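SAMPLE LOG
Freezer: B-3
Tube label: C17
Construct: single chain, 90 aa
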Amino acid sequence: MIQIELPGVLQELADHQGIVEVEGKTVQQALDDLGQRHPMVLTRILTRGGQLRPHVNLFLGGRDIRQGDGLETPVADGDELLVVPSVAGG
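STRUCTURE (predicted):
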């Protein structure tokens, strides 16, 4: 099982869960499983084309997946994937 930690803004769409346990061998597969359980959450993370939204960051083991293999980054049982929306201001 992989744990996906959701920010407060997405928890409402996941039955008010802060952490959702999913299955998968890659970040993409883990997100697909999340989407099966909570489809509206996935629409806030990925574009219609299946790409990571520019304002959403995913961290696996403290590393931004964009600095690795992106959505094809491998995951293993016990891993934690953190979803962090970008904050803009000015």
